[in-house]
Amino acid sequence: AQKVTQAQTEISVVEKEDVTLDCVYETRDTTYYLFWYKQPPSGELVFLIRRNSFDEQNEISGRYSWNFQKSTSSFNFTITASQVVDSAVYFCALSLYNQGGKLIFGQGTELSVKP
Amino acid sequence: NAGVMQNPRHLVRRRGQEARLRCSPMKGHSHVYWYRQLPEEGLKFMVYLQKENIIDESGMPKERFSAEFPKEGPSILRIQQVVRGDSAAYFCASSGQGMNTEAFFGQGTRLTVV
Question: Fewest CB atoms less than 10 Å from the CB: which of A61, A76, B51, B89?
């Protein structure tokens, strides 16, 4: 069975601090996708990234970066120089190659960035 | 280029009433997925539909819940005889042809049962 674990339930940082959100996944499949979504207080889901299992290159997009390590089944997300607007719940998710939009979500990490 | 549209955004029902949640997929998308997010929890897969077919309903509660995606019109998630425990945010996602295409989420419908 597949599983996604986000061990950090809540994180609180002060603005401009860097913060890393952890994500560990479990699957026996060799081909899969990993995702991060942001859910701000308004409630919608904002897509951040999709990464396939064959691409272990780290990715950077502005203040966001992702570290994918198959050896530890982790897909961690770092926000550099956090801002108050980054305050949200962040979800990590997994989908199998042949299951399209059927995602298995972690429980989410609530990030609070204080001024 | 409208995204996935869900309506209503907020729905209040009394216990015992029926709730109907609608999802219009992105243009050209023929695959629809419904998810439920209970308070303080992550999203849980409920059902996957293609036009006129239910492909995977492994996450649907066995009673009171049903879903359809007719040839014409939006996908409907129907909850009969709602109870307080049905209060949640219900998200719909859609994707195009092929099992590898990315799914896009709607803004969700927040159901409150009073």
Answer: A61
Query: Cβ contacts (< 8 Å) between B56 and chain A: which residues?
Result: 102
In contact, A108 and A40? CB cutoff 8 Å: no
CA B99 to chain CA centroid, Å, is 19
DSSP assignment string, B5-73: EEE-SEEEE-TT--EEEEEEPPTT--EEEEEEE-TTS-EEEEEEEETTEEEE-TTS-SSSEEEE--SSS
Using a CB–CB cutoff of 8 Å, tell me whether A54 touches chain B.
Answer: no
Q: How far is the C-alpha of B8 from the C-alpha of B10, rounded, in Å?
A: 5
The structure tokens listed for B1 are 């280029």
Per-residue pLDDT of chain B (114 residues; tens, 9 = 90+): 569 999 999 999 999 999 999 999 999 888 999 999 998 788 999 999 998 899 999 999 999 999 999 999 999 999 999 999 999 999 999 988 665 667 889 999 999 999
- Name the CA dihedral angle for B30, B91, B13, A41, rounded to a multiple of 10 degrees: -150
**Chain A residue whose CA is closest to B110:** A43
Distance (Å) from the alpha carbon of B67 to chain A's nearest alpha carbon = 16
SS3 A113: strand
